[in-house]
Amino acid sequence: MMSAKLWAPALTACALATSIALVGCSKDPKEAQQGAAAQKMPPTEVGVIVAQPQSVEQTVELSGRTSAYQISDVRPQTSGVILKRLFTEGSFVREGQPLYEIDANTNRANLESAKAAVVRQQANLNALQVKANRYRQLIGINAVSKQEYDDLAAQVKLAEADVTAAQASLKNAQIDLGYSTVRSPISGQSGRSSVTAGALVTANQANALVTIQQLDPIYVDINQSSTELLRLRQQLSQGSIDRSNNTKVRLKLEDGSYYSVEGNLAFSDASVNPDTGTVTLRAVFSNPNHLLLPGMFANAQIVQGVIPNAILIPQAAITRTPTGQAMAMLVNAKGAVEARPVTTSGVQGQNWIVTQGLQAGEKVIVDGIAKVKPEQQVVAKPYQPQAAAPQGQPAAGAQSGTAAQPAQQPKPTEQKATSHA
Length: 421
Description:
The two termini are 88 Å apart. α3 packs antiparallel against α4. The strands form 2 sheets. A 6-stranded antiparallel beta barrel has the order 2-9-12-11-10-13. The chain is α+β, with helices and mostly antiparallel strands. The chain is 28% helix and 33% strand. A hairpin with a 5-residue loop joins β15 (326-331) and β16. It contains 5 helices and 19 strands.
């Protein structure tokens, strides 16, 4: 009992000394714990893609409206009463097809009168020519005066002119009679008729009888800002893009679907609209089934040119500084993270088009970019986009409370282009 009482103070003093020594060795326990945890954690895994230069089409999406390739307002060219309509409203009519029949009795009578006038003038000319031949013989023997012969020759010339005028009147009468049948000047879709049988019409009246529109091919009128057009021309002059081929145009319809036929850019206005600051572009599309009708709204995706040696990078891999500079995170040869400024020139689907700042074969971080910082050691693995979950089944990660985001692969036709430095 005495020995235990003697050893108790000594043991207490030893325990106190040991605690003081431990506190002196670790001034910051939190830092010590973090350092130990860092030594135990493996390098962060990141998903990367390998930069591969390729030729990329630069597109821009602009709004526009369809308009008929040709429009003809059919008006009568002679006066009269409409006897009958010879076509079905809304049907397709061909060039030269009869549309209306106008009462031709007056025009037919005018034609007969013109024929009689020609016969009369021709008979008068024949009589003067016979008389002139006789005077030509008599003047040689001074049987008639030179003055009389000259007057007769002048009368022959006037008679010839009267015959020509009568023949012209006859031709006009024939044309007017032909106008009694109103024909379609172009092939196209007919509209609503503004007159019925019994209506009185006059030559060159203001109101059209019917409107014919050619719908195949069809125009799409597009408005592009003058700023975008100026930027495009500067890129062309600098050789940044290639425009050796005809400019292709794809059409996105009002319901979100894409028109199955590609069009070509056929016209660019030579002036800028001062009210809107836009330039009108016109594209031509084949329209054999008349799916496109005049006045429809559509979005036109115009392939402005091809950017050589561009690199497509997923949008998730590009961040921007407060000043707007695009930045990419790379994994260098030493396995460390490196920040790199890049230059973009629009988007294609869900990818940025990178034109400067990246080299072929460099590894660009796409997955895990928020978990790393420059000079940090990482483990690079090929980037695997998340596949869409089958219908009726939860996506991977949904059971753990995290909704998986299915990767939507961009269609080649769904392209937009904007310009960013």
